[in-house]
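Researcher: Going back to the complex we discussed earlier. I've cleaned up the inputs and rechecked each line, so this should be the final set. Can you rerun the prediction on the complete assembly and write out the structure?
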Amino acid sequence: MDNLEELILACIAGERLAQNRLYTLFAPRLFMVCQRYSNSRAEAEDILQEGFIRIFNHLRQFSHKGSFEGWMRKIIVNCALQRYNNKKNQIQVITLDNEFPHSENDKATANLGEKELLKLIRQLPPVYKLVFNLYVFEGYKHREIAEILGISEGTSKSNLSDARTLLQKEIIKLNHIQEQKIRC
Amino acid sequence: MAENLHDIDNLFRSGLEDSEEVPSNAVWEGVKQYLDKQAKPPLPGKLTWLKRLSVAASLIMLASAIYFVHKEPGVLFQEPVAELNRPETVRPEADLQKNKLPAGRLSEIQKSAQRKTDKVNIQKDQNTNSDFKPVEKKSLLPLTETMLRKSIEPGIPEESKNNPDIVSTSINSKESNNSRPLKNKSVNTSNEQEANKQFKDNETTKNPETEMVVVRDKTTNAMPGIGIKEFEGSDAKKIEPNTIENSYVQTQILESNPTKPEWTKVYNQKTIIANTTNSTVLNNSVSAANSLKLKPTLIPKFSITPVATVNITKNNIQENRSFGGRNGREHKEFKQTEQNKTTISPGLLADFRLSPAISLQTGISELRNNISISTKMIPAIRDNDGKVRYRLDCSAGSYFIDPKTGTTPQAGDTINISASEIKLNYASVPFIIKFNAGSTKLRYYGLAGIDYNFLTNKNSSTVLQGNLDEKLASARTEGLKTNYFNGVIGGGIDIMISKKIAFSFMPQYRFAIKSINEKSPVNSFPSSISFISGFKFTL
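Model: Rerun complete. Updated structure for the full complex:
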C-alpha cells in the first residue's frame, strides 16, 4: 500500500512514468469494466481513456481511506453512465420478444468463457445492460439504480428481471447448440 | 426459476469479476497526449478573495506610503512652525497659558521644528535634488518683497506699499484664547482698525523675536507648491515691533510654475501665519531664506489620455451550488474546454486633480472577453420560447443554436461541435484614485478603484463537427448579466515628452467583484492583467 501511495503522490506531482505505471497496473482490470458497459471494444477504449483522464485530474481528491481500485472503478462507471446519458435518444426500445442477433461465430463457441459472457451482456438492450451491470457487478440497490438512471424503482426491478430472462434464454440456446455439436 | 435467475448473476459475476484484458496502446497515447497538454504551465493560481484583498491592501498601503513620504516636507510647514522657530526664546509659562498652547503640543512642535532644521541643513549641504531648485538669494529678496506687497488686498494704492500700516490693514486678529490659526479667513477692511487695536492692546509680547512666516495652501491647507518665506530687510519696516503677536495675514502669494521652479505668477489667496515682532531677528533670517526650496505641483488639473489596452483574461469558474446542475460537473467541463483569448481594446481616460498628489481617473474604455470553446457534445433542449434548439452552455451563459441544415432537433438529441467562440464586449467606466509621486519629468503612481462594466454586445460563432464551413450564430442567449463591477489595482508611470504631453503606461490587475452570469450552474469571475498605454494631454 505504501508503494501505491507513493505512486499516487508521484502521479499527483505529474511524473509521467508514475502515471504510466499506474495505468499499466489498473488498465486491464478497468478495461473489463468498460467492456461490460459498452457495445464494442472501441467504445470500451474510449470510456477507459476518458476515465483515466478523469482519474489523473482528480487524483488529489482521493482520500486514501477506501479502496483505490474501487474509487477508480466508480469513476469509470460514471464515465460509462455519462456516455449512456448522451446517447439516450439513440437507444431503441427492445421488448422481451426481441432476439439476440447471432453471428456464425457465436454458434461456434459453446463454452461460456469470459468472451462469451461479455458478448451476452453486450447484446442486452442498453438499459437492461446498465441495470444488470449496476446491480450484479457494482452492487447498487434498485433505489440507487433508479436514481442514477432517472427511472422508477419498479422499472429497475423489471429491467433486471428481463435482462436475466434474456440472458438465461440465450445461455440455454448456447448450451443446446453445444450439445448438438457434441452429439454430432 | 428464480433460483436459476440468481444463478445467472453468480455465473456472470464469477466469470467476469476478476477478468482482465489489456487495452490497445492508443488508449495510453490518448491519455498521455491529454496530460501533456495539461502540463503546460498554468496561469498563476486562482486568486481567492483573501488573496485579492491582501494584494489590494498591500498596494494601497504601498501607494499611501509613497504619497506620505513625498508629503513629508509639508509636515514641516504645519501651523505651529512659526511658533517654534524662536530658537533663542523660551516663552514664560504664563505666556503659553495665555495663548492656550498646551505644553504637550509645544513639545511636539519643538520636535517638528527640529526635524525641519535638520532637513534644511541637509538640503543646504547636499543640494542634490534637481527637481526643486533653490531660489537664489538675489531673486528671492525682491520676490519676497513682492509677495508682501501682494499681501495687501488688491486695489491698495502703490504709495502705501512701504507704509507700516500696510501689514496691519491686512491683519486679522486671532482671539487670544484660540490656539489655532484662523485659516482662510478673509480680512474685512471695516474690522481691520478694530483688529489692530486689539493687537496693540495686547501687552503680552514684551520680548518680540519671531520672524517666521508660514505659507499654506488655502484650498488644501497643505504645503506642496508653497514654501516658507521669511521677512527681512525692508519687510521689517512693514511690521512694527511689539505690535503683532500670533497674527494672521490674509495675502496673495506666488506659486511656483511647475515647469519653472520660480515664483513667477500670482496664484490665489493664501493664508500667512505671521508671528513677527522683532525687526532685529528678521534681519537675521536672510541665510535661512537661502534654503527655500519650491516644490512644484506634480499633476495637472485636468488631462485626457487616449489609450490602447492589452487584456490577458482568465475566467475563474466556480460551481454554483445553489443552482444545482450536474453535481458540479459543468464547471469542471467548462474549465477543460474553455480558453480565454488575449484582446486589445481602445479607451479614453480623463484625470482630475483632487489634491497636489491625488487624482481621480475616469473615462470610458472597451473591455473585451473572448472565450474559445473546444470540441464538445451539446444537447437539444426546449428553450423558454418552447422551441427545441441545441444549447451550448459555457461560463458566459447559454447560447441556443439552430443548425441551418439537417433535421429539426428533438429534445434529448445531441450534436458535436468542433469549435465555438463567444465574444463579449463591455463598455467600462473606471473610478480610480491615483496616488502620484515623482518629479515633473517622470511621475509614477499607485492606483486603486473600481470599473463599472455594462454589456454592449455579445455573440457566438459555432462550427458543427462535419460541417466546418458553416458558422452558426446564436439565436438566443440566457444566463448572462448585463453589467458587473471590477476591482482595479495597479500602478503606472507618466514620462513627460513635452510641456503638455506625456507617455503614460499603466499595468493593472482587474478582477470581477461579482459573477458575470446568473441562473447558471457556474459562477464566472473574469480577471485580467491589463497593460494600458497612451499619450496624456494636459489641458
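Model: Worth noting: The mean pLDDT of chain B is 65.
Researcher: Good, that matches what I expected from the previous run.
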